[in-house]
Design brief:
CATH superfamily of the largest domain: Ribosomal protein L4/L1
Number of strands: 6
Number of helices: 7
CATH topology of the largest domain: Ribosomal Protein L4, Chain: A
Distance between the termini: 13 Å
Helix content: 25-40%
Strand order of the largest sheet: 2-1-3-6-4-5
Largest sheet: 6 strands, mixed
CATH architecture of the largest domain: 3-Layer(aba) Sandwich
CATH class of the largest domain: Alpha Beta
């Protein structure tokens, strides 16, 4: 099992913690990590593009002229695709870009991402993270003490003081231990987790 230093909010090492290899020491599966990231981004796509086919454009209920004898090419509707204002051929419709990924695959991708952060020494454990008030300056000070800028902060349960204090800091996001995902773990340079959050992650994913 990997031993990781535990820091306090002043950035001083106060203890060490042994991480569970079943979560933080797995064999990294890059393929599943890539799939998990693509799935996360695909789910964020709105897929709301829409154009009308000839069956949806209003008008065109009658034949514009008779079939023969006019000198024109035969036409059945003024809403056919070749007409100005007509429908579109193979028009795009609203769609869902997400795809299925098995639960075990998602879990392994998440554990692979966590393992990579530990191996790269970009996983910081805090003994606790508590703020008496909503104050961005105090949260910035904690990050500066840890010498971290772009970070994912993981807490065990929702704490309004922490979430709101970190909200206005560029490149910093706060998540609870039950809402972490592969994409955000990899997007931010460093993962900062409290001891309680680490315990909950190990409880869920071990």
């Amino acid at each position: 099992m990997a031993n990781v230093a535990v820091y306090n909010m002043d950035g001083k090492e106060v203890d060490t913690i042994e991480l569970n290899d079943a979560v933080f020491g797995v064999k990294i599966n890059e393929h599943l990590v890539h799939q998990a990231v693509v799935l996360h981004l695909a789910k964020k796509r709105q897929g709301t593009q829409k154009a009308k086919t000839r069956g949806e454009v209003s008008g065109g209920g009658r034949k514009p002229w008779r079939q023969k004898g006019t000198g024109h090419a035969r036409q059945g509707s003024i809403r056919a695709p070749q007409w100005t204002g007509g429908g579109m051929v193979f028009a795009p419709v609203p769609r869902d870009y997400s795809f299925k990924m098995n639960k075990k695959e998602k879990r392994l991708a998440l554990k692979s991402a966590l393992t990579s952060r530990v191996q790269e020494e970009k996983f910081i454990v805090l003994d606790e993270l508590k703020l008496d008030e909503i104050k961005t300056k105090k949260m910035v000070q904690v990050l500066n003490n840890l010498n971290v800028s772009k970070a994912l902060v993981v807490i065990s349960e929702n704490d309004e003081n922490i979430v709101l204090s970190a909200r206005n800091i560029p490149d910093v996001i706060t998540l609870t231990s039950d809402s972490i995902n592969t994409y955000d773990i990899l997007k931010y340079n460093t993962v900062i987790a409290t001891k309680d959050a680490v315990a909950k992650i190990e409880e869920v994913y071990a």
